[in-house]
Amino acid sequence: NAGVMQNPRHLVRRRGQEARLRCSPMKGHSHVYWYRQLPEEGLKFMVYLQKENIIDESGMPKERFSAEFPKEGPSILRIQQVVRGDSAAYFCASSPARDFSGNTIYFGEGSWLTVV
Amino acid sequence: EDQVTQSPEALRLQEGESSSLNCSYTVSGLRGLFWYRQDPGKGPEFLFTLYSAGEEKEKERLKATLTKKESFLHITAPKPEDSATYLCAVDRGSTLGRLYFGRGTQLTVWP
User: Fold this and answer.
1) Does A53 contact B at CB distance below 8 Å?
2) Which residues of chain B lie closer than 8 angstroms to A8, CB-CB?
3) Cβ–Cβ under 8 Å, residues A24 and A108
4) Measured between CB atoms, does A4 come within 8 Å of chain B?
5) Measured between alpha carbons, how far is B90 from B97 in angstroms, rounded to an integer?
6) Which residue, A65, A82, A100, B97, is most buried by CB atoms nearer than 10 A?
7) Which element (helix H / strand E) includes A10?
8) Do the beta carbons of residue B86 and residue B104 sit within 8 Å?
9) Residue pLDDT, tens place only, A72-89
10) What local confidence, expressed as pLDDT, does residue B91 receive?
11) Is residue B65 a contact partner of residue B17, using CB atoms and an 8 Å limit?
12) How confident is the model at residue A28 (pLDDT cuts 50, 70, 90)?
């Protein structure tokens, strides 16, 4: 887990508010992934980003969720108008390369979102 | 439908009692199979990646093996600090990073 930094670690939001989760990849990594872990479920892929590009967002809910990875600064997962069902652990991961060449992906410690 | 199935869901072992965790997968065109360890309130910690049937990798008391349909994580003489949830994931695409995870095996090792 060393190197992938996520914040905040814990976030409480009221229904209808917005949640912003931040992720700084490991040094030298240019590829970022977001996963969600719902209670009693496995980790589910949400989105894959490179700097300024969304490569694969097929795992993202169609509404209220968005992600970006700007040229400067961390990747941000944004959830608008949160509902109780959004309560989950959100994990960011990063890798140094896109091609499958023996690289792996490393996860951060996660951001735990609670919607009340 | 489940692509990755892990068993058992939970396993309790006495310290020193060796055992194996199973991960079976149904995806075709497997690019890699990953094992992670996850402690409560933490992110998944990378353990191994296996790429082809017959491959084996070891790290301390852990040994991972891969066949065409499943992978095993063997734990030899476990210690209480090995207690964690062990996650298996597969990459079936052409791009590293989109992993399909199983629900994990929760391992408890008691002294």
Assistant:
1) no
2) none
3) no
4) yes
5) 10
6) B97
7) strand A10-13
8) yes
9) 999 999 999 999 999 999
10) 86
11) no
12) confident
